[in-house]
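Tokens as discussed.
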């Protein structure tokens, strides 16, 4: 019974169109309606959230937060989608294009995350090394951070990385070097391509990259469904 009640809470938080002040107890300026979102996009087209599957046809996605297989144990998103602000998505297009020339591609693990998800993560795991503090919000809430790994395009297999996604451990850090040589090379390859296209590492997590001007994008709390139905 406990599991069922846990399941309902995040889905209501993320998927509901109903907005209340309880969604943002920290007085952060967050775009939480499509009206606000669309006004922001009209004023600054960079802030449009772009569907990665539309801008990179065939992009591999594994959105763990749309399944039970994530650190919370429940689905946080009601559909496995990945959105990023337009310049961030376009940088990823260029990076993927470059990677494909050597037979590699990206697998997207998470991208834009509605703020309600960040609030819920912090309730489940209040350690701000691995989970954003809801007082400031996550770069994911701005559509300017992406979690990703590398795959072989021919087989679809992931290249071996230091840990699984969302392994909240020291081994996930870029500073951790007690790893097999090929794993170090794979991590360095991902870092090299991302840095070449304007992304920056987040040292504790090998899978997380922030775009260069990440904090210039607004915090959002519009659902995937609202974005898809727009
Ligand atoms: Zn991340």
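Sequence:
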């Amino acid at each position: 019974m406990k599991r069922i009640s846990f399941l309902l809470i995040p889905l209501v938080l993320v998927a509901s169109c109903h907005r209340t002040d309880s969604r943002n107890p920290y007085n952060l300026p967050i775009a939480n309606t499509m009206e606000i979102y669309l006004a922001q996009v009209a004023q600054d087209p960079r802030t449009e959230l772009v569907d990665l599957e539309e801008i990179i046809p065939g992009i591999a996605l594994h959105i763990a937060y749309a399944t039970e297989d994530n650190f919370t144990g429940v689905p946080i998103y009601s559909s496995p989608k990945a959105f990023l602000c337009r310049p961030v998505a376009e940088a990823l297009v260029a990076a993927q294009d470059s990677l494909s020339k050597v037979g590699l591609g990206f697998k997207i693990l998470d991208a834009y995350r509605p703020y309600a998800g960040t609030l819920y993560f912090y309730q489940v795991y209040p350690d701000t090394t691995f989970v954003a503090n809801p007082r400031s919000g996550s770069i994911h809430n701005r559509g300017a951070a992406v979690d990703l790994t590398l795959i072989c395009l021919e087989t679809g297999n992931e290249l071996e990385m230091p840990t699984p996604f969302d392994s909240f451990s020291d081994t996930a850090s870029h500073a951790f070097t007690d790893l097999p040589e090929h794993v170090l090379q794979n991590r360095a390859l991902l870092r090299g391509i991302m840095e070449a296209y304007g992304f920056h590492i987040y040292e504790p997590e090998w899978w997380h990259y922030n775009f260069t001007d990440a904090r210039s994008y607004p915090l959002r709390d519009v659902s995937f469904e609202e974005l898809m139905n727009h």
